[in-house]
Design goal:
The chain folds into 2 domains: 13-26 and 37-105, no CATH class; 112-494, Methylamine Dehydrogenase, Chain H, CATH 2.130.10.10. It has 8 helices and 31 strands. The chain has helices spanning 2-5, 39-46, 62-80, 83-91, 97-118, 256-262, 418-421, 447-452, and strands at 121-123, 132-137, 142-147, 152-156, 162-165, 187-189, 195-199, 206-210, 216-220, 229-234, 239-244, 248-253, 275-277, 281-284, 297-303, 308-313, 317-323, 327-334, 343-347, 352-356, 360-364, 376-377, 385-391, 394-399, 403-408, 413-414, 435-437, 442-443, 461-469, 474-481, 488-494. The strands form 7 sheets. Strands 1, 28, 29, 30 and 31 form a 5-stranded antiparallel sheet that branches. Strands 6-7-8-9-13 form a 5-stranded mixed sheet. Strand 15 (297-303) and strand 16 form a beta hairpin. WD repeats lie at residues 222-255. Residues 115-495 form the DDB1- and CUL4-associated factor 12 beta-propeller domain.
Length: 495
């Protein structure tokens, strides 16, 4: 109006809303004369556009208008990625797939560093069972375990209730010597968590159970192993590999229709029936590279990313096979530390194997001809690394001295205690390695203990097995006394 009357045209005030900003605002109806706020409030609201500069002739430049829209979009995305927004969405059951999954992945990456420092132990009572060698989570409150006394059981970590699972017996009488002290050394669930593989009543046989009922499905007792099974790894939902002390790796295929056929099979006394199967392929650990008398397979780990199977043998060698329709051996080489290589794990994110030995954790990268990662010393007085697990780039180490250690592979250092890692700690203070020590467990003070260990009041429990339940942020640990002659057990829930 001032331009039309020829009056002076002053430059726009600094806090005026640029014309382009109105393009994003809804127009108010002209028929509503009602005033909804004071002039001062409206002037303050109009001042929100003061960040946009004015171009020639009093018009906002397109670049500044885009910056205004971009800043609003960034604020909106930041609000959507906040912890509060994530928890609110989860509470009402929102199904926003990608955003929630990405944010949950970030939370887990943060938790993998912080969770170990917050864990506290609740010890579980296992009665008079002897040494837990293997364990896996079945659901949010149940863990299935195998012991040295050849017992398969499920423990409820909330109520401490224990349910024993019947073992599967061979179809023909076992002619070999009785081996009751071997026990169950491996328990593995298939990717869809519908089948469980472990040892049978005869420790040389492979038993398959259905989940979640734990009904028997089949037993690999025909033309299989001649010695104890120490390692098991699933290649897919229906293909599983077992490794034995007889120096062989056997590949088994489970017929999916077998599950439906086995339902309702019972013998005259009411026990469930199950099929008896044979391996489709058996690979022998090469004699040219290893001792012919000590080629015993001790542990297996499968890389789903590369479709490769890794194995460690007692003589200190690492073996790698390509898994296709058959097993094709790629390489065998000696590890830097060859004494008591008893556990093996694999990290998909880093494409890295980790092997636990008497005093070290050795890292194996199959892509590199020369292994450049220096081994990690467990610093536990030679009691050995007894269990390993990877989550992202953090490796959890269960030792023979009853402690848990946590190592960051990327940073190449152990996680530290909260007091050491806090900003308030003085610069000269030496960082203290985080170490969680398990409880006392139960030890049988029998005649052997009195004759050979009576002077020692208590023994630390070797952590032969541990497994995480990451959705619930819980860790299950179990084991028993390290000396082979002692009888006892330990189990604990860390949360």
């Amino acid at each position: 109006a001032r331009r039309q009357s020829g009056s002076r045209d002053p430059s726009p005030p600094a806090n005026a809303v640029p014309p382009t900003a109105f393009a994003t605002m809804p127009l108010a109806p002209t028929t509503s004369p009602q005033q909804t706020g004071s002039r001062k409030r409206k002037a303050d609201e109009a001042g929100a556009g003061s960040s946009a500069s004015w171009g020639p002739g009093g018009a906002a430049t397109p670049e500044n208008g885009e910056e205004l829209l971009l800043s609003k979009k960034q604020k909106r995305l930041a609000a959507q990625r906040s912890l509060l927004r994530y928890l609110q969405s989860r509470e009402v059951g929102a199904r926003d797939g990608t955003g929630a999954r990405d944010f949950e992945a970030e939370l887990r990456a943060y938790a993998v560093h912080k969770l170990p420092t917050l864990l506290t132990e609740h010890e579980l009572a296992l009665g008079t069972l002897n040494k837990v060698f293997a364990s896996q989570w079945l659901n949010a409150r149940q863990v299935v375990c195998g012991t040295k006394c050849n017992t398969l059981f499920v423990v409820d970590v909330h109520s401490n209730h224990i349910t024993q699972i019947p073992l599967l017996g061979d179809g023909a009488p076992v002619l070999a010597r009785n081996q009751p002290s071997c026990g169950i050394h491996a328990i593995e669930l298939n990717p869809s968590k519908t089948l469980l593989a472990t040892g049978g009543e005869n420790p040389n046989s492979l038993a398959i159970y259905q989940l979640p009922t734990l009904d028997p499905m089949c037993l690999g007792d025909r033309h299989g192993h001649n010695d104890w099974i120490f390692g098991i790894a699933w290649m897919s939902d229906t293909v599983v590999v077992s490794g034995s002390r007889d120096g062989t790796v056997a590949l088994w295929r489970v017929d999916p229709d077998m599950c439906h056929r086995s339902i309702g099979w019972h013998n005259d006394v009411g026990f469930p029936m199950y099929a008896h199967i044979s391996p489709t392929e058996t690979e022998i650990i090469p004699r040219a590279n290893t001792s012919s008398t000590n080629r015993k397979v001790r542990a297996l780990a499968f890389s789903d990313k590369n479709q490769e199977l890794g194995a460690v043998s007692v003589d200190g060698y690492f073996h790698l096979w390509k898994v296709e329709s058959t097993l094709c051996r790629l390489v065998s080489f000696r590890l830097p530390y060859s004494r008591e290589n008893v556990c093996l794990t694999y990290c998909d994110e880093l494409s890295l194997y980790a092997v636990g030995s008497q005093s070290h954790v050795s890292f194996v990268d199959p892509r590199q001809r020369q292994q450049n990662m220096r081994p990690l010393c467990s610093r536990e007085g030679g009691t050995g690394v007894r269990s390993l697990s990877f989550y992202q780039h953090i490796i959890t180490i269960g030792t023979g001295h009853g402690s848990l250690l946590f190592y960051d592979v990327r940073a190449q250092k152990f996680l530290e205690e909260r007091a050491s890692a806090s900003p308030e700690s003085s610069p000269g203070t030496k960082a203290k390695k985080l170490k969680l020590t398990c409880g006392r467990g139960w030890l049988n003070h029998d005649e052997r203990w009195a004759n050979h260990f009576g002077d020692t009041e208590e023994f630390p429990n070797a952590l032969y097995t541990h497994c995480y339940n990451w959705p619930e942020m819980k860790l299950f640990t179990a084991g028993g006394p390290l000396p082979s002659g002692l009888y006892g057990n330990y189990a604990g829930l860390w949360s």
